[in-house]
Amino acid sequence: MQYLHAALTETLRLYPSAPTDPKYCFSDDTLPDGSDVNKGDLVFYQPYPMGRMKFLWGDDADDFRPERWLNNDGIFVPQSPFKFTAFQAGPRICLGKEFSYREMKIVAATLLYFFKFQLWDSSREVKIRTMLTLQIDGGLHLRAMHR
Protein backbone atom coordinates (compact mmCIF):
# COMPACT_ATOMS: atom_id res chain seq x y z
CA MET A 1 0.00 0.00 0.00
CA GLN A 2 3.07 2.28 -0.12
CA TYR A 3 2.35 3.41 -3.68
CA LEU A 4 -1.33 4.02 -2.91
CA HIS A 5 -0.32 6.15 0.09
CA ALA A 6 2.05 8.11 -2.17
CA ALA A 7 -0.65 8.55 -4.84
CA LEU A 8 -3.17 9.83 -2.27
CA THR A 9 -0.58 12.21 -0.82
CA GLU A 10 0.37 13.49 -4.27
CA THR A 11 -3.32 14.07 -5.01
CA LEU A 12 -3.66 16.08 -1.80
CA ARG A 13 -0.51 18.04 -2.65
CA LEU A 14 -2.02 19.17 -5.95
CA TYR A 15 -5.68 19.26 -4.89
CA PRO A 16 -5.94 19.91 -1.14
CA SER A 17 -9.45 19.77 0.32
CA ALA A 18 -9.01 23.25 1.80
CA PRO A 19 -7.22 25.32 -0.89
CA THR A 20 -6.80 28.33 1.38
CA ASP A 21 -6.80 28.51 5.14
CA PRO A 22 -7.28 31.70 7.17
CA LYS A 23 -6.03 32.04 10.73
CA TYR A 24 -7.12 34.75 13.17
CA CYS A 25 -4.44 36.08 15.54
CA PHE A 26 -5.62 36.11 19.15
CA SER A 27 -2.44 37.81 20.36
CA ASP A 28 0.63 39.56 19.00
CA ASP A 29 3.11 37.06 17.65
CA THR A 30 6.08 36.58 15.36
CA LEU A 31 5.95 34.13 12.44
CA PRO A 32 8.84 31.69 11.81
CA ASP A 33 10.20 33.95 9.05
CA GLY A 34 10.40 36.91 11.48
CA SER A 35 7.26 38.73 10.33
CA ASP A 36 5.25 40.32 13.12
CA VAL A 37 1.50 39.81 13.32
CA ASN A 38 -0.76 41.74 15.61
CA LYS A 39 -3.77 40.69 17.63
CA GLY A 40 -6.81 40.78 15.33
CA ASP A 41 -4.81 40.23 12.12
CA LEU A 42 -6.04 37.64 9.63
CA VAL A 43 -3.29 35.50 8.14
CA PHE A 44 -3.87 33.21 5.16
CA TYR A 45 -1.72 30.38 3.95
CA GLN A 46 -2.64 28.70 0.70
CA PRO A 47 -2.04 24.95 0.30
CA TYR A 48 -3.23 24.96 -3.33
CA PRO A 49 -0.49 27.21 -4.77
CA MET A 50 2.04 25.91 -2.21
CA GLY A 51 1.65 22.44 -3.74
CA ARG A 52 2.75 23.87 -7.09
CA MET A 53 5.75 25.92 -5.96
CA LYS A 54 8.80 24.82 -7.94
CA PHE A 55 11.23 25.94 -5.24
CA LEU A 56 9.49 23.54 -2.81
CA TRP A 57 8.71 20.58 -5.09
CA GLY A 58 11.12 20.90 -8.02
CA ASP A 59 10.69 21.73 -11.69
CA ASP A 60 8.01 19.04 -12.05
CA ALA A 61 5.83 20.59 -9.31
CA ASP A 62 2.83 20.77 -11.67
CA ASP A 63 3.09 17.07 -12.55
CA PHE A 64 1.27 14.27 -10.76
CA ARG A 65 4.18 12.08 -9.71
CA PRO A 66 3.55 9.81 -6.69
CA GLU A 67 7.14 8.54 -6.93
CA ARG A 68 8.36 11.80 -5.36
CA TRP A 69 7.09 10.40 -2.03
CA LEU A 70 8.92 7.04 -2.29
CA ASN A 71 12.54 6.20 -1.52
CA ASN A 72 14.64 3.83 -3.66
CA ASP A 73 13.11 0.83 -1.87
CA GLY A 74 9.54 1.97 -2.67
CA ILE A 75 8.84 3.00 0.93
CA PHE A 76 6.77 6.14 1.59
CA VAL A 77 8.82 9.03 2.98
CA PRO A 78 6.75 11.89 4.44
CA GLN A 79 7.66 15.55 4.00
CA SER A 80 7.49 18.21 6.67
CA PRO A 81 3.88 19.18 7.45
CA PHE A 82 5.04 22.79 7.00
CA LYS A 83 5.84 21.93 3.36
CA PHE A 84 2.93 19.54 2.73
CA THR A 85 0.12 21.44 4.47
CA ALA A 86 -2.96 19.46 3.44
CA PHE A 87 -3.44 18.44 7.09
CA GLN A 88 -2.00 21.65 8.56
CA ALA A 89 1.04 21.60 10.85
CA GLY A 90 2.29 22.30 14.33
CA PRO A 91 -0.23 22.45 17.19
CA ARG A 92 -3.14 22.56 14.71
CA ILE A 93 -2.22 19.44 12.74
CA CYS A 94 -5.31 17.38 11.91
CA LEU A 95 -6.01 14.79 14.59
CA GLY A 96 -7.83 12.66 12.02
CA LYS A 97 -4.97 12.53 9.50
CA GLU A 98 -4.14 8.83 9.97
CA PHE A 99 -7.83 7.86 10.06
CA SER A 100 -8.38 9.88 6.89
CA TYR A 101 -5.57 8.04 5.08
CA ARG A 102 -6.94 4.69 6.25
CA GLU A 103 -10.41 5.61 5.04
CA MET A 104 -9.10 6.82 1.64
CA LYS A 105 -7.11 3.60 1.19
CA ILE A 106 -10.06 1.36 2.02
CA VAL A 107 -12.40 3.22 -0.36
CA ALA A 108 -9.81 3.43 -3.16
CA ALA A 109 -8.79 -0.23 -2.87
CA THR A 110 -12.42 -1.39 -2.81
CA LEU A 111 -13.49 0.73 -5.78
CA LEU A 112 -10.43 -0.10 -7.87
CA TYR A 113 -10.80 -3.81 -7.12
CA PHE A 114 -14.36 -3.93 -8.47
CA PHE A 115 -14.45 -1.16 -11.10
CA LYS A 116 -12.58 0.55 -13.92
CA PHE A 117 -13.29 4.26 -14.37
CA GLN A 118 -13.39 6.54 -17.41
CA LEU A 119 -14.44 10.14 -17.85
CA TRP A 120 -17.98 10.21 -19.22
CA ASP A 121 -16.95 12.86 -21.77
CA SER A 122 -13.23 12.56 -22.46
CA SER A 123 -13.23 15.76 -24.53
CA ARG A 124 -14.41 17.86 -21.56
CA GLU A 125 -11.67 19.64 -19.66
CA VAL A 126 -11.89 19.14 -15.90
CA LYS A 127 -11.75 22.49 -14.11
CA ILE A 128 -11.71 23.26 -10.43
CA ARG A 129 -13.41 25.96 -8.37
CA THR A 130 -11.75 27.39 -5.31
CA MET A 131 -14.34 27.83 -2.59
CA LEU A 132 -14.13 27.03 1.12
CA THR A 133 -13.30 23.55 -0.13
CA LEU A 134 -11.83 22.65 -3.52
CA GLN A 135 -14.59 21.62 -5.92
CA ILE A 136 -14.78 20.33 -9.48
CA ASP A 137 -16.66 22.85 -11.60
CA GLY A 138 -19.78 21.10 -12.92
CA GLY A 139 -18.92 17.86 -11.13
CA LEU A 140 -16.84 14.93 -12.33
CA HIS A 141 -18.96 12.62 -14.41
CA LEU A 142 -17.47 9.14 -14.62
CA ARG A 143 -18.39 5.83 -16.20
CA ALA A 144 -17.80 2.90 -13.86
CA MET A 145 -17.46 -0.56 -15.40
CA HIS A 146 -17.23 -3.86 -13.52
CA ARG A 147 -13.83 -5.54 -13.76
TrEMBL record:
InterPro entries the UniProt entry points to: Cyt_P450 (IPR001128), Cyt_P450_E_grp-IV (IPR002403), Cyt_P450_sf (IPR036396)
Pfam families: p450
Binding site for heme: 94
Keyword tRNA-binding tagged: no
Keywords: Heme, Iron, Metal-binding, Oxidoreductase
Family (UniProt): Belongs to the cytochrome P450 family.
Protein name as catalogued: Cytochrome P450
